[in-house]
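RECORD TYPE: inverse folding
INPUT: structure tokens
STRUCTURE:
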């Protein structure tokens, strides 16, 4: 028999009644909240773009400015749109007054924890934490004049949920660009337990973010089947690949003799999901083939100490961990082969940079990578976490100069045609204008 609870009115201390409804279902409590968010939306059909100069609000749930692919994407979009004459504001949590936010969070934490404990007899720390962050962000936005904007563009499911609620009042076109595969990806990476309360909560957040937006700008087609599962129609999604401004002035093809060392670079933050450990395993399998090879790991992160230990244990004396660098184009210019053995990615900026730099690329078959790298045409593709296969294809590239050159040329041609910031910004602007 389902437990009944008295209906409570929605408040900012419990920011999303439909999320409470989702957890009610998990616990077998008779829901007292609607599990949908009804928003009067403009038609998502894209019309012929106008030439209006727009006021655009970009929101992110993560700090900005900061290091990372998401922050680079936002910066590129802002700069590009402003060059076209639009006004762009970015709102991120670290831009709010910290003292005020801490005061709000302290009060909301107590109220939210009390609510869940009284309702279910227990609570999830992760859910309480997210509710607190959502509430403080929303309260800050409620104190701002959002009426002046023509377009809202959320860069994550969290701020899309927030803007969806506020949009009951403003009725602005709300665009949503997810930069990760949301709950689906967290389950794959074992960051969420299958059939858990947290899965129920975050899946509901995914669904409402998608439903609240008028149109979704997705980074690659790999998002489509995942979003389709949560009810997003194909006509509501437009794929626009990430574009970058790559400083090519440093890319000078070095003149090498057969005696010169081959340089392999892996440029990425040192995180578990980037797969550096599999590259080291692959190099250990081919030691007798790398006497004339140097390998550079460029980047820093929580895996550095572990990777340094692995390098030592495997006696890979030709591997150097260079740490964070701000001369990526120069490093790529000196490189012959670029490797990214990632196990979880959407559309890595590092691969796109290597394409512009005209380098032979080896990477994995995850996310949207297969949409920009074609095996044996613009790069080589290996299975994720497969050190043996990675070693075999690395050996092939080390031996075959002509293959390296043809892969590099094809990758560079694709990047110049499809992955420029100008192309990305122009296509996004056209979607914005279609709602005016």
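DESIGNED SEQUENCE:
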């Amino acid at each position: 028999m389902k437990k009944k609870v008295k209906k409570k009115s929605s408040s900012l201390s419990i920011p999303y009644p439909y999320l409470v409804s989702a957890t009610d279902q998990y616990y077998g409590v008779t829901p007292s909240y609607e599990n949908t968010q009804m928003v009067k939306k403009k038609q998502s059909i894209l019309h012929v773009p106008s030439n209006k100069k727009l006021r655009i609000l970009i929101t992110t749930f993560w700090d900005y400015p900061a290091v990372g692919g998401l922050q680079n994407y936002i910066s590129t979009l802002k700069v590009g749109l402003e060059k076209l004459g639009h006004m762009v504001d970015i709102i991120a949590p670290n831009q709010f007054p910290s003292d005020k936010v801490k005061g709000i969070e302290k009060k909301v934490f107590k109220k939210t924890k009390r609510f869940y404990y009284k309702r279910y007899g227990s609570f999830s720390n992760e859910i309480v934490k997210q509710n607190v962050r959502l509430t403080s962000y929303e309260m800050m936005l409620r104190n701002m004049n959002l009426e002046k904007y023509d377009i809202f563009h959320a860069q994550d499911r969290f701020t899309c949920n927030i803007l969806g609620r506020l949009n009951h009042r403003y009725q602005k076109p709300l665009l949503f660009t997810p930069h990760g595969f949301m709950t689906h990806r967290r389950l794959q990476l074992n960051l969420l337990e299958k059939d858990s309360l947290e899965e129920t909560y975050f899946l509901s957040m995914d669904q409402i973010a998608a439903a609240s937006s008028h149109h979704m700008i997705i980074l690659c087609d790999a998002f489509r089947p995942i979003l389709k599962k949560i009810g997003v129609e194909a006509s509501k999604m437009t794929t626009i690949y990430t574009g970058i401004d790559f400083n090519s002035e440093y890319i000078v093809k070095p003149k090498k003799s057969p005696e010169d060392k081959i340089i392999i670079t892996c440029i990425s933050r040192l995180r578990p999901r980037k797969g550096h450990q599999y590259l080291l395993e692959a190099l250990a399998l081919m030691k007798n083939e790398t006497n004339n090879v140097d390998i550079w790991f460029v980047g820093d992160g929580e895996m550095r100490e572990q990777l340094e230990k692995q390098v030592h244990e495997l006696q890979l004396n030709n591997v150097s961990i260079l740490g964070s660098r701000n001369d990526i184009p120069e490093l790529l210019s000196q490189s012959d082969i670029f490797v990214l053995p990632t196990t979880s990615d959407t559309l890595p900026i590092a691969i796109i940079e290597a394409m512009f730099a005209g380098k032979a690329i080896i990477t994995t078959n995850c996310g949207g990578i297969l949409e920009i790298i074609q095996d044996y045409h613009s790069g080589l593709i290996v299975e994720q976490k497969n050190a043996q296969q990675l070693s075999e294809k690395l050996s092939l590239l080390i031996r075959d100069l002509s293959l390296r050159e043809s892969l590099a040329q094809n990758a560079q041609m694709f990047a110049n045609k499809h992955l420029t910031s100008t192309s990305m910004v122009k296509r996004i602007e056209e979607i914005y204008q279609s709602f005016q």
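NOTES: Residues 98-120 form the longest helix (23 residues).
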